[in-house]
Amino acid sequence: MDIFSSLALPDAAVLTAIVFLCSSFFISLFSLIRLAKTKAGKKC
Amino acid sequence: MLINALIWIAYIGLFVWLARKGRGHDAMHAGKIHFGIQAFAYVATYISAVALVGFGGLAYEYGLQMLLVAAGNVWLGTWIVYRFLAWPTRICQKRLNARTPTQLLSIGHHSPLLGRFLAVLFAVFLGVYASAVIKGAALLLAQIMPVPVWILIWLVAILVGFAVFVGGLRGVLYTEAMQGFIMLIGICMLMVAVFNTVGGPMQGIELLAQLPPTPKANTGFVSLATGERGWFIISLVIVTSIAVWAQPQMIQRHFALNASKQVQLITPLAMLVLTVLVGGAYFVASLSRIFLPATASFADVIPTLVNTLLPNFALPLFFLAIASSAPSRRPASCHLPVTAPAELSPAKKASRPMWFAGIIFCILLSGGCAQIKGQLIALLCTTSWSIVGATVLTAYVALVRFGKRSSLAAWYSCSAGFLSCMAWYLLVYRSTAIVSPLLGATAALIPPFFIGFAFSLVGWCLGYIIEQRLTNKALTVQTI
User: Fold this and answer.
1) Nearby residues of B83 by Cβ (< 8 Å), 6 or more positions away
2) Domain boundary assignment for chain A
3) ipTM greater than 0.90
4) From the list A8, A21, A25, which residue is nearest B222 (CB)?
5) pLDDT reading at B337 higher than 60
6) Is residue A8 less than 8 Å (CB to CB) from chain B?
7) Is-contact B111 B102, C-beta < 8 A?
8) What are the structural domains of chain B?
9) Contact yes or no for B222 and A14 at CB 8 A
10) B29-34: long-range contacts, CB 8 A cutoff, minimum separation 24
11) For residue A4, what pLDDT is reported?
12) Can you name the residues that pair with B220 across neighbouring β-strands?
């Protein structure tokens, strides 16, 4: 609880934007890695 | 000095080499292009100097709420486009044998006259819009080059004209991709520098939350503003993320797709690059509020950050990166106006003299407009996206996504969208009305794109119903 109370959290709208940006970063990164692996697998 | 000179030579050499990649191809066809090139080219076409420097400045003034714009650009402006519009556009373009977005709409809706109207609209609004972007680049280059701004404006315009003339659409895609890549490096460098200064992203958010509210960020820097200011941010999200769907230079990017599988590769890469570029730029610009004193103009924020935080050798690279977004945007915006004369030509290939004349027209128009001082350009820049989007969006989505082809509906939709958006700008919208806003203070806050799009939608429905009834009537008469 202390951790959360000490953090200055952004409001819901900004938090949503941050979540969307982070998810786009990780989703697209993992998608690219998965696609690269599939491609490498096909070549082998 | 030597390093700076080497960077410049390498940059120009690479630019010329990539521009020449389009030689031997029809200037309006891209041919087969690697998915990585297409992804970077899409991002570079999307993001301009106006977006990075101008919106970066807005992030300084409004705080983290500008991340809503970044998230909108990534999900609405990129993911939705590639998920629902890109491949259908390519299929439609192939089926109709259209060479440009203008032809796609005119052939698709069986209306050559609509094609001529759109060719003129795109030539004027994109040509003039490009002037604002050129000016942005010239002002940034002036920070590292002891040359008058008016000369830099012509230099940038000619550089872009060269890229379009030599490379056509294919050369434009390659040069854009290069510039998108340089932009990515530049923003990453800036992110590292700002995070070092504020002690990391989480520490930065905490410090930002402690700053007192201002008239613009009226609820502080880590929350969405209330009232007019908050609506301004929401409207920015909509205009920059949805109006972009129907910008002809963006539509044209889909023409280069080779297969539907390519979309699966382009989508994550474009989203990743855009997230880092736009999200990173707005995030660090917001955090700069902590240590950067108030600047005279919000356009000074990013250049000031660069000058104060980055090491000397990185300065020319960064300014090139940011200024690159202008030439990258420019070939994209310039290519369309240049194709305008060819829209009227039945020839399969645009002839070289015709192509050259189009480029000269484009350089003179945008280079000349860029010499005009400040306000008019800013006005034209902000209006052009909204007007083009409001005019074309409904007819474009109806055609490529729903397969609806109707000359009357397209005409009603385009003219209603164009006229209502223009009228709203000139008579009602507070920042641009030439008389005192006609419909009161509340209406004066509604962004013209919203009005234009609503009218365009109504126009489409009306035209479609009328055409259906006329067709039914004609069929009945024939049967009798």
Assistant:
1) B267
2) 2-43
3) no
4) A8
5) no
6) yes
7) no
8) 2-371 (1.20.1730.10), 386-480 (no CATH)
9) yes
10) B29/B99, B29/B168, B29/B169, B29/B170, B29/B255, B30/B169, B30/B170, B30/B173, B30/B255, B30/B256, B31/B170, B31/B256, B32/B258, B33/B170, B33/B173, B33/B256, B33/B258
11) 45
12) B218
Position A39 scores a pLDDT of: 77
DSSP classification of residue B242: T
Q: Are B222 and A13 in contact (CB under 8 A)?
A: no
The two three-digit tokens of residue A18, written as one number:
């941050």
pLDDT at residue B325 tops 60: no
**pLDDT tens profile B287-311:** 999 998 877 677 778 878 887 887 7
The 10s digit of each residue's pLDDT in B417-464 is 999 999 999 899 887 888 777 787 888 888 899 999 999 999 999 999
Is there a contact between B206 and A27 if contact means CB atoms under 8 Å apart?
no
Give the span between the Cα atoms of B272 and A15, in whole angstroms.
Answer: 19
d(CA B56, CA B306): 12
User: What is the spatial distance between Cα B109 and Cα B268, in angstroms, rounded to a whole number?
Assistant: 32
Alpha-carbon span B454 to B233, nearest angstrom: 20
DSSP 8-state secondary structure symbol assigned to residue B332: H
pLDDT band at residue B330, thresholds of 50, 70 and 90? very low
A10 in contact with B, Cβ within 8 Å: yes
pLDDT in tens, B118-147: 988 988 887 777 777 777 777 777 767 778
Torsion B171-B368-B13-B326 (CA) sign: negative
